[in-house]
Structure formats: C-alpha cells, structure tokens
Amino acid sequence: MGTGTGRGAGTGTGGGFVAVVRAPVAGRTWREFGFLLIGLPLSVLYFSLVLAGLSVGAGLLVTFLGVPVLAGVLAMSRGFGRLERTRVRVLLAADIADPAPVRGRKPGAASAMGALLRSGSAWRHVLYCLIHFPWGVFSFTVALVFWASGWAYLLYPLWFWVFPAYTDQPGLQLFQNGDYAFYLDSPAEIALTCLVGLAFTLATPWVLRALTTVDRVLVGGLLGPSRLATRVTELESDRGVVVDTAAADLRRIERDLHDGAQARLAALAMGLGLAKEKATEDPRAAARLVDEAHGEVKIALQELRDLARGIHPAVLTDRGLDAALSSVAARCAVPVRVTVDLPARPTAAIEGIAYFTVSELLRNIGKHARARAASVEVWKSGERLLIQVADDGRGGAGVAEGSGLAGLAERLNAVDGILVVDSPAGVGTTVTAELPWQV
User: Fold this and answer.
1) Which tens digits make up the pLDDT trace of 112-149?
2) Sign of torsion over alpha carbons 70, 72, 75, 81
C-alpha cells in the first residue's frame, strides 16, 4: 500500500512540474494572451461608441429624437455582447448562454424601441461596455508587461551583445545616479537576469488565467441570461416534467383499473348472472358460482386497496413517514431496516414525494438488485430532507436516460431535489435523495 501511494504521489508531482514548465508555451496560454491583447482595442471601441451614444441620446431626450438614439445604443450594445460571448467561447472555451431575445409586445418600431428601453439585459450590456474599458486597460497592461518582461529577461543572454556592439553601453542599464550607472553585463548578473525572466515567464500563465477569470465573470454576469430568466427556464422545464409525470400516473391508474379491478368486476357480474340463472335449476352449480364470485370480490377489493395505496396511502396522512415507510418495507421482497429520525413532519407534498421515492427504490431492489438485505434512512439536515436507500445486491445501477432512476431524478429535480446514485458492480447500491423541507 505504501509503495503504491509513493508512486502516485511521485507521478502527481512530476505531472504538476511538467504542467508548470509547459504552461508558458501551451495553447491555452497563447489564447488567453491573445484574448487580453484584443480586449483593449475592443473595449476602447465599445466605450467610445456607447458613451457617445448615451450622451447624445440623453441630450436629445427633450425631443423625441433621444428615444430612438438610446434604443439604437442598446441594440448596438447587445451586438457588442454577442461578439464578446463569441470571443469568450472561442478563446477561453467558456460557453456563455445567450440572453433571451428582446421582442416588442406589438409589431412595429415603436414597440421594439420600448422593449429595448425596458430590457434589463440590454442595460446590462451597456454597463459591460462602460466598465470593461478600465478593466481592459489594466488587464492589457499587466498581461503585456509580464509576457514581454519574462521572455526578454529569460532570453537576455542571447541578445545582451546588442548593447556593446551597437551602443556605448556594456549591457542593459537598470539605473543611473549622476556619474554612476549600473549595467547588467557580468556573467553573474546575466545569469540572475535569466533566472528572474524564468520566474516571470513561469508565473505569466497563471496571471493570465486570473485576469481572464475576471473576464469570464463579467461576461457571464452581464452578458448572459439573468438569474431570474434562468430560474424561469428551469421552472418551465420542471413544470413540463411535473405535467408529464402526472399524465403518466393517470395512464398507470387507468391501466390498472382497466386490466385489474374492472376486468374482475366484469367477470364477477357474468358469474353472478350465471348463478342467478341456475339458482332454480341447479342449486349446487349456482352455489359454486357464487363461491367463485366471492373469491373474485376479495381479489378485486385487494387490488383496489393496493391502487388506493399507490395513489396516496392513508397511513402516510394519518401517521407520517415512519409508519408509511415501515409499511412499504414490510411488503418488500427482501428484509429492510427502516430508520426515520425527524423532529417534525415536512410539508405534505414533500412527504408524499419522499414516500414514493422510497417505494420506487425498494421496488427496484426487489425486482433487479438480487439483494439479501436493504436499509432505509431518513433524517433532516438544515432545511433539507435526506433519504438514503442502500442494498447489498449486484450493483451496476445508473441514472441512464430512459431508466426508472432517471425518471425519479426528474421528479426530484422538479422540486429542487437531488438524486445521487453510487452503485459499483458487485458491491451494492446506495441511492441518496435530497429534498427541500418545504415547498
């Protein structure tokens, strides 16, 4: 064990050293340096046009001409934002989503201008164009100084001969005080300069990454969709999942009624009709038919109870999760240990989702896991309800698209829940679900 750990540590250290040495000439570093160099002229262009447009538009607001000028500035800023998102996507490999398009409530130029003037996204684009100018100057200066100084000092032994050959100086002059001047001309000074350049060169990629991280944050925060718009999109997606789930549940209930209780009741009606006809002619046959109908009635009642329990169990409403999950565990094909540690009951909706989550997971264990035992643990952490269902079966489960666990994960996601599956092959499966305490 110790040998393996030593090899892993050595490999990691060697790999990190190689990454640091290669970073100055890596493609990512060159792309980030190019991004920062291009950023300055673009930021000057953005700042100049937007500031001039805002000034003219604000000055003309006393007349109607200021409105279309400001709308034009907002539209132009959104165009600049599209260019910046493309630049970040190509050079920094950061995928920034486009904001929602701005559409007027009615056709026509006046409605379109009004929509632009009311758009928070458009005004954030204007803000980006204004604040990116000072940041562009700073990041351009820092990046160029580090890059040029690092390579110039690192390669100083190759070009310091220019000074004595073409000037009256023995080397690069650092400072002069009266008649005294200090030059980098001795072998020790040249070697020290080379080492300083090496330090600058190795540090430059990390400086560039720090600078471009700020650009990613600016573009993502000001030029991407707002948090509200993102949340609305998530809620629309979750609503679709909820609607699809409800429709699937209704189809399942209809199928269970049609294929189960309804079919048995139809057969019961036919059996009772035959018994009625034979009541006078053949009492024994009629009694036998009535006895068979009695058995069908018991089975139909049991199916209806199971169906009602599947819709919403009465024990959950009356006694809470502990009793309801114990009831589910008692019907599981493998022995299940249930532990519920809750200070109070969550909201009814969350309680129902937790119940059906455990029911589905135990059903999967009984059908597919080939387990000898399982456990269910439920507890509260902060404002979240946590559920963990584990078994000692064959493992290999996953949240693949189209699987039962994928559908369960979508249901949980619809209420800001999380489903995590840990299922190594041959070891068993542990599924952890996290739900909000209330909705």
Assistant:
1) 888 888 888 889 999 999 999 999 999 999 999 999 99
2) negative
